[in-house]
Amino acid sequence: MNDMKETEKNECDRLFSRLPPIETPRDLLRRTVCLIRNEQIRSANRRQLALLSVLTVLAAAGMLHFGWIAARDLYLSGFPDFVTLAFTEPSIVLKSGKSLLVGILESLPGISLVVPLAIIFAYLESVRVIVGKFNQSGLTRC
Amino acid sequence: MEEITDEELVIAYRKGDQKSLEILIGRYLGQIHVFIRRLTGNDHDAEDIVQEAFVKAWRNLWRFDSRRRFRPWMFRIAKNAAVDHLRKRRTVPFSSFEDERGNNILADSLTDDSPLPDELLNRKDIGQALAETIGRLPITYREVLILRHHDGFAFGEIAEITKCSVNTAKSRHRRGLAMLRTMLCTDSRIKGVI
């Protein structure tokens, strides 16, 4: 029984060996590798875009939160009064401009302002890095 | 020097070695191309499907279980890509003997298990007729016959590639062979000599 099966297999193998040969195109390997490389780039770009979207949402949320805190602290500080004074009483600016400037700067709510500024800086920096990676990853025609 | 196995190349690629992927593609491109070309019977389609298959393989490389063999896994992806491609086009019939519902009337009526006549095997011009006849077989039989007799897979591997049981693979092989034999013997180019 096994011998019969073996003979049949050999016969069929022999028959199939008579099929006309097929030549694989020479540049098919290059084209396939190129296509996969492009897919890898697209995939990396998609990941970068997803990361950028998440960063944008986080930055926007952070800006809203800390921006509101900064605005509130700014309103509660003496900063608006000093600025109003500087614009309404020009004589004071002329007389003691340096002290007024120091007063204005001291009245600024430092920490509350630094946080939103740091968020803006970090966000813009990550956009710069991601855009840079996009530019470097050139898709090629396969 | 001992050659790196396919499975080791997959592991190397996962660790970031891009070159391993290229070696792996280079190793299988020819085999897969010939397999797809025999399955579809069309050069242009075959090239598209091969590229599609390798892109799919690359996408799924992280899911590949490196304890299993890469070759049947790759052939399975290629076979699925080919079937999807043919289904999408549908202008290429799955078989000349299939009715509108996809049933095959001829295959069910074949029971002839007699060996292939020697005259048939010795015919010099059998190649082209055989290729055309294989192209007219239902795809389920065509793929099993090609995998078994052209690519040398065992039935267990064919079952894995075609996602069926070993018995189904064997039964498809038997029916496909019977159908091929009948079709070859009725081929007008060969008929006169056997």
Task: Provide a descriptive summary of the structure in words.
- The complex is a heterodimer of chains A (142) and B (194).
- Chain A starts with a helix and ends in a 6-residue tail after the last helix.
- Chain A is mainly α and 142 residues long.
- Chain A has five helices and no strands.
- In chain A, helix 2 (28-76) runs antiparallel to helix 5 and helix 3 (79-88) packs antiparallel against helix 4.
- Chain A is rod-shaped, with a radius of gyration of 35 Å.
- The longest helix of chain A has 49 residues, at 28-76.
- Chain A has one domain.
- Chain A has helices at residues 2-16, 28-76, 79-88, 90-107, 110-136.
- Chain B has 194 residues and is mainly alpha-helical.
- Chain B has two domains: 6-89, RNA polymerase sigma factor, region 2, helix turn helix motif (Rna Polymerase Sigma Factor, Chain: A); 111-191, Orthogonal Bundle (Arc Repressor Mutant, subunit A).
- Chain B has helices at 6-14, 18-40, 43-60, 70-89, 105-109, 118-122, 126-136, 139-150, 155-162, 166-185, 188-191.
- The radius of gyration of chain B is 18 Å and the shape is elongated.
- The mean pLDDT of chain B is 84.
- The chains are: A mainly alpha (142), B mainly alpha (194).
